[in-house]
Every structure is written in structure tokens, then in C-alpha cells.
Design a protein that fits this description.
The structure is a homodimer. Chain A is built from 9 helices and 8 strands. Chain A has helices spanning 19-29, 48-64, 77-84, 95-105, 122-137, 162-173, 210-220, 229-245, 258-269; strands at 7-13, 36-42, 69-72, 89-92, 152-157, 177-182, 203-207, 250-252. In chain A, helix 2 (48-64) runs parallel beside helix 3 and helix 7 (210-220) crosses helix 8. Chains A and B meet through helix 1, helix 4, helix 5, helix 6 and helix 9 of A and helix 1, helix 4, helix 5, helix 6 and helix 9 of B.
Chain lengths: 273, 273
């Protein structure tokens, strides 16, 4: 195949928020790392009229540019037809799969737009909102009151990624997550720090590499002992020993995204909801 | 079609985190609101051996249950074949679309697994992590220092959803969001509160309905003036007037999810990245 790589305009089109179209579209585009793409998301395409306006814009581009790509999660047949008639490559992310599901489930799809990222299941939605509050309240050991009410307690030396991982788990999965920082003084003993000692079965540890940790700490406090490679090495070695001694599962955050860590943590704690 | 609805086991299978499979799979399932599903996510299916173990489990279910559903984003052809040979309905979310992209882009797909939710673009990833810290630091007007460094300032009466919306925008879009609570005393004047007055063009307002707001506040402080319908009505009416007077765009959080609000906010502020 050709080795020329052009810049394609990419549109994520949806009758809802566009999140599903973006997620799957971007997943597909990562398979083409050498091509370049200019992305735009067009949410709430709910009328044939608006769809026509969007298609006119896309078609005006396709005259002077390589074929634009459209990733669509539009549900309405009428609106989908407007896009299909455009000059772009239109990838309908739901159509074929919906048909196959209808056959297997012996049910007709509702074809109602934008249900994926609405409030949907209100109970689940409220649980997520509650979990975000809980996470903020218990960030960085700020409040120890309700550690035992949490589903998971993330423990780690400072700057290993506890806070963003906590937020992600709360926001996306509605899990009650507290986090607890391990500090220099915690490594004097072979015991877990007192507040988390009775809760070891809820604990999950994070690590990093000394290099990465030192870099991140340097951004916060340049030239400090706190950011020195030696100090980072000391804390990480002792934290890992602590995790192993107490059978606390752990993951290294240096090479993993928060999404990957969340996935590992939930899988390991069998808490995926 | 039949009106009998059975409970189907659903598996989101991936060689990465499973987030894309979950997102698109769940979007498809919302089109079948009358059916019920028991969901499980199986991430990191990276070897043919592990895939065979998973398929054995799925096939053992299909003997006593209605056809299980498998939503797969596995990229490797070898592993995909293992699933295709199972007794489940396997919906391969990437296969067909990848082929069509290869044709249009005149490039072969890399077929490398799990790139969608890795750290990917490190700069973008670090921006998201930084945005989460920024959001926590500026939650609920806690720190006014850097309001002018923020991309967006969410303003609203207490309990309209500022905090979770802020976290979502930070975590998913790497946008620097501060939020600022409007309190009773702010409504005595026709001016914006002093700290945000010079930053009106960054402000975005949230509203709710008096009923919904009163409900949410009652959970926090039952039988208080703060939670009373009258007080909620007063604050919401005045907040809306303030938004209109100063040309601040706003959205009502009572019927919208944080994903939908984020989408509206970014679209309105043209900050979608």
C-alpha cells in the first residue's frame, strides 16, 4: 500500500454527546499512527436540517482535501441517510451491530437517540456523583473518618498518581475510593500505618520508577531532598516491601495510564460494576 | 418480534482496558431497554491461551442460558478467531471499520493492541493529570489565586453539580476548570461577585430546578433553610438573572448528565480539545 500520508479531517457526529463516537473513532485512528488527523466533534445532531448543514460543511472540505472521515453514532435512520449521501467516508458505528442484536434478542431496537451518556440509570448516576464527593473529602488522607466506608484505599508515596486514579474510579465507576499517602516516617516500622492497618484488604498500592517520580516531584519542589533520586528510590523500595509483606496488590504507574490502572485495580479487587 | 425478554450475559472483551468495548457495547444495549443484561468486562486478553479460557467460560454459560453477547475490541486476528468460534453472538466492534479505513487511507492498520487508553500522547495525558490537580485546588472557590489561569470558571448556587462537572472536564478533556459558588449574599447586588467580575468571559453558569436542588440539599442538611424550596427558588431565580444580565451562558443540570453538560459547555466555549 501507499506510504504517502495525508491529513484527513475527522468528524465525530452524534445525536447525543458524541462521547461514544469519539471513543470508538479515536480507538480506530490509533491503528493508523503515521497518518495525521484534524478532529472535530459535532454533538446533538438531532434534526435532518442540522445534519444537512453539517454535511454541506464536510462536503465543502472534501473538494480541496483528501476524503474526510465521519464516525457516526446517530440512531435515526432519516439523519443517517443525510450523512450516507455525503462525499465523506462515513463509518456508522451502531448500524450493523444493532441489526445483529435485534436478531439475537428477538426485540426491536428503540432507535431513540443519545441514551448512552444521559443520566440513564439514575441510581448508578447518583452513586457516581456521590463517589466524586467522597473522593474529594478523602483525598490525600485529609479525612480519616470514613476510611472504613470506602471500597478501595489507594496507598502510595507522594506523586505516584493516587489522586487522578481516585477521581477516575469515582467518576467513571462510582466506586468509593479514599487515598492515603505513605511518608518517610511510615517506613520505620514493618507495620502498616495505624489508620489503614485494620483495612489492609481494601488497600491497593501504587508505585512508580525512581526516575519518573523524581521528575514529577522536581516540578513541584525543584532541588529538594523530597525530589532527589535517592529519596524517591528509598520510598519506592520500602513501599514495595510493605505491599509484599502485607499481601497488598500493587501496580506501577510510570508506564500505565489512569484508565489502565483503574482497569487493573477493579479487575484485581473484583469491584468492577 | 417476540415480547419475551430474557437475561443475557454480556462480556466486554478487550486486549486493552476494555473501556472502548464497554462504552460502545453499553451504547448499543441502551437501545434495548426492556431486556436485562448481566455485564462483565474482561480486559487484557492478550494471548490465544487466555482467550480460550475465556471462551470456555462463555460457552459453558451458553448451554443453560440464552445466547451470551460478546462485544470485542480485540485487534489480533488470531485472538479474534478464538472468539468467533464460540457459541456467543460476537460483535467485533473494530474489524469492518478498520478495513474500510485501510482502503480510504491507503495504509495498513498497525493491528497493535490496546492503544486507545494507554498514556498515548504524553503531553495530552500530562495536561489531563495537571487539570485534575488544578480542579481540586480550585474546588468551591477554595483558592482564588489562579482563577485567571483557568480556561473555564463554573459558577452556580451550592449543589447544582459544579464539582463533578469540573472533575469530568479536567479528567477527560484536560481543561483547567475552577468553580465558584454563588451564595445568598451575592444576590444583593446586580454586579458579579468581585473575584469573578473581571473574568465574566470565562464563566459558565449551572442551574437546577427548585425541587431537585431542594432534594439534594435536604440529603446534606435536612429541614434547614438552606434546603427549603423557597430558598432554592430564590437562589436559582437570582442566579439565572445574573447569568442573563452578564451574558453568561448556562445549562440546567437537573435533567442533564455531567457528560452532557461537559459537552454543552465545551461546545459553547469552543474549548473542545
Amino acid at each position: 500500500m501507499s506510504t504517502e500520508h495525508e491529513t484527513h479531517s475527522v468528524f465525530f457526529v452524534s445525536d447525543g454527546t458524541g462521547i461514544t463516537a469519539e471513543t470508538l473513532g479515536n480507538t480506530l485512528l490509533t491503528q493508523f499512527p503515521n497518518d495525521s488527523f484534524i478532529r472535530a466533534t459535532i454533538p446533538f445532531v438531532n434534526t435532518v436540517e442540522y445534519a444537512r448543514t453539517v454535511v454541506r460543511h464536510i462536503d465543502s472540505l472534501s473538494k480541496s482535501q483528501p476524503t474526510p472521515l465521519v464516525f457516526s453514532t446517530v440512531v435515526s435512520d432519516e439523519i443517517r441517510e443525510v450523512f450516507t449521501a455525503s462525499g465523506a467516508l462515513v463509518i456508522d458505528l451502531l448500524g450493523e451491530a444493532t441489526k445483529r442484536l435485534e436478531q439475537t434478542l428477538h426485540t426491536e431496537a428503540s432507535h431513540s437517540p443519545g441514551r448512552a451518556h444521559g443520566q440513564g440509570d439514575l441510581e448508578r448516576y447518583n452513586a457516581r456523583m456521590h463517589a466524586v464527593e467522597f473522593a474529594i473529602e478523602h483525598d490525600d488522607g485529609q479525612s480519616l473518618r470514613a476510611l472504613d466506608r470506602s471500597d478501595i484505599i489507594l496507598i502510595a508515596p507522594s506523586r505516584c498518581g493516587k489522586t487522578p486514579t481516585t477521581m477516575y474510579l469515582a467518576l467513571q465507576h462510582g466506586v468509593l475510593v479514599a487515598n492515603y499517602p505513605l511518608i518517610h516516617e511510615d517506613f520505620g516500622s514493618i507495620e502498616l500505618p495505624a489508620p489503614i492497618a485494620p483495612l489492609a484488604d481494601k488497600c491497593f498500592g501504587l508505585l512508580s520508577t525512581p526516575q519518573r517520580l523524581s521528575e514529577v516531584r522536581t516540578q513541584r519542589r525543584p532541588d529538594s531532598r523530597y525530589a532527589s533520586l535517592d529519596q524517591c528510590r528509598y520510598e519506592l523500595r520500602n513501599a514495595e516491601e510493605m505491599y509484599r509483606r502485607h499481601g497488598i496488590p500493587f501496580v506501577n504507574s510510570a508506564s500505565k495510564s489512569i484508565e489502565e490502572m483503574a482497569s487493573v485495580i477493579l479487575h484485581s479487587m473484583s469491584l468492577r460494576k
